[in-house]
Amino acid sequence: MLKILFIGDIVGRPGRDIVCERVPQLRAELGLDVVIANAENAAAGAGITSTIAKSLLNAGVDVITLGDHVWDQRGWEMEIGGFERVCRPANLPAGCPGRDHVVIEAKGVRLAVFTMLGRTFMNLKGECPFLAADALLAKLAGAADAFFVEIHAEATSEKQALGWHLDGRAVAVVGTHTHVPTADAAVLPRGTAFLCDAGMTGPYAGVLGREVAPVLARFLDGMPRKFDVAEGDVRLSGVVVEYDPVAKRAIRCELLTVRK
Q1: If you write DSSP's letter for every residue of 116-182 in order, what string do you get?
Q2: Does residue 69 carry a catalytic annotation?
């Protein structure tokens, strides 16, 4: 069996710290073969830097994925190409810097990892995630044995629809972006593991990882404010997927929550 941990959106220093502290232990305790993490909010809650990417990879994260905040940190567009195990959303324009997928080998299985950016209610627009996923699967045929797909989207309907669209063709389709873990972990009929949202890795004593007071004030009066990353109730949130490479189907999909 191939055992994969996908870690939901890492938010700020609290999220980075718990990942760096706990991933080595989790790899040993759970017998993990691959660790994938979305780190698009790892730098002060918006974007990522090369220093942060290196620290997460050195801590035992095998693949870093990104989302709609991919370009939030100045200069990252010049650095992303130097990271072989970091990929930006695959359905962004082809001319964007960075890789649209990563292939990592574990237990003799070549696992391709990529992210599709949703289009419903999203500010950063990509190509159709359904058609783009089809095209990338076709492109990687022969270069990978299995596919792990992240859907970074706002609408739950779009996430669920992509799960059904790829059922039987992907090891897993896991949603991110909304920062709230969902209770719908399942293995779909044709063998694809699915979870609508893996949740946030960071401080839950806040609003989506940010301090409560400025967010609440913004809702009350509409005035712009700086949303600092919160501090309390830090958790690592993700999903563990077990995949049978002989049967070519997932056999387990389970939400994981680790408290600091």
Answers
A1: EE--TT-SS--S-HHHHHHHHHHHHBTTBSEEEEEEE-S-HHHHHHHHHHTTTT-SEEEEESS-S--
A2: yes
69, 101, 152, 179: which is the annotated catalytic residue? 69
> What pTM was computed for the model?
0.97
Architecture field, domain 2-259: 4-Layer Sandwich (3.60)
Measured distance CA(55)–CA(10) in Å, rounded: 13
Contact 48, 73 (CB under 8 A): yes
Report the alpha-carbon distance of residue 72 to residue 48 in Å, rounded. Answer: 8
Mean pLDDT for back-to-back runs of 10 residues, the chain (260 residues): 98 98 97 98 97 98 98 97 98 96 98 97 93 98 97 98 98 98 98 98 97 97 96 97 98 96
